[in-house]
Amino acid sequence: MLEALKFVRGAVAKKSPIPILTHFSIREGLVKGYNGAITLCSPIPLNLDCQPKAEPFVRAIQACEDTVHLALTPAGRLTVKSGKFRVHVECSPEEFPDAVPTGVRNDADLTGLIAALKALEPLIAEDASRPWARSILIQDGCLYATNNIILVQYWIGIQTPGRICISHAAVNELIRIGLDPIAIQTDTDNSITFHYGEDRWLKTHVVTQEWPDLNRVLNRESTQEPFPEQLFQSLDLIAPFADKTRDVWFAKGGVTTSLVDQEGATQEVEELYPQGWYDIDQLRSLNGLIDTADFSMYPAPVLFFGMEGALRGAIVGRKDGTYPPASE
To answer: Do the bridges between strand 225-226 and strand 266-268 make them parallel or antiparallel, or are there none, so unpaired?
Structure first.
C-alpha cells in the first residue's frame, strides 16, 4: 500500500486554492493524485471509496508497525489502525477531478528515456516568458532541451506522432519515479500518458507553444576535435574566483576569469582553442555530455557531440565586438 501511495504522492498539491488537490482519490482499487497539471494513478489493495488528505494519510501508514486496518467513520473520516496505534484522517466530500488515459497507445521501446531526461533536465530554461523552453521536446526519435544558451539534441529512438513538449514539472516527476515507461499514449486533447504497468500511469498536458526551427543551429559544418580532458577540472578550479558576471575566457594558454594582468584566476589548459568568451557555469553544465567540440566556430554558436554520438548540441558564447586578439 505504501508503495502505491509514494508513487502517486508526487502529483498531490502541497498547497492549493482548490483543497481537493491536496487529497488522494481512492476508488475501485485505484489511488490517484492530481495537482492541476499531472495525474498519477496506481493500483492499491483497498476496497474503499474516499478522498483522504494525502500527507497525513501517508504519515499514518508510515507509522504503522503491525497489520493495518482501515475503515470510514460515520463522520466521513478515514481511521488508520495498527496494533495500539490509531489515527483519523480528514477526507474530502468534494468531487475529485478524475482523469483516465486517452488517445492512441504506443508500446514502443522506451529504454533509456529516464537516463536521457536526467541528462537534459539541468538544461531546461527557467525563463517563464518562453514556455516552450520550459519543456523538453520529443520529435523524430530525439529529445531536445535548451536554456537559450545551450541547445542539446539527444537521439533515443522514441517515435511519437508529431511534436510533443513535456513540461519541466512532468520531466521532474518522471525522473522522481525513476523507471522507464513501458508505453506512451497521446491524444488530440494535448495530453500524454506514460504507462508503467496495468493501471499505473502518469498523465499530463503537453506544452502547446511551438519550438523554433532547431536545424538552422545544429545542421552546420564543423571540425570536431576531442574535448580537452583538463577543461572541466580547470573550470571547477577557477569558478570560485569568477565575479558576478560569471565570465570566463579562453586566453593566455588556458582559461581565465579576467583579461587584465594580475587579476582573477587562470589555469593552463593544453590543446584549447585560444579564443572564446563564455558563461563559466554554462560551460561546466556540459560536464559528462560532451566528447568533441569545434571551438573555432566562436563567436558563432559552438557545435559539440557527446554520449558516444547519441548527443549533439550548441553553446552560445558571449560577444560584443570588443574581444581582444588571442595574442594580447
So the answer is: unpaired
- Helix/strand/coil for 42: strand
CA distances (Å), origin 223, targets 155, 283, 302, 304, 305: 21, 19, 10, 10, 11
Walking along the chain (328 residues) 10 residues at a time, the average pLDDT comes out as: 88 86 93 94 92 92 89 91 92 91 88 93 87 90 93 88 87 95 86 93 90 90 92 96 94 89 90 92 94 95 93 90 41
The Cα 288–Cα 232 span in angstroms is 9
Nearest to 109 by CA among 160, 60, 149, 50: 160
Q: By the 8 A CB rule, do 37 and 191 touch? A: no
Q: Is the pTM of this model over 0.85?
A: yes
Going along the chain from its start, the domains and CATH numbers come out as: 2-89 (3.10.150.10), 104-217 (3.10.150.10), 220-315 (3.10.150.10)
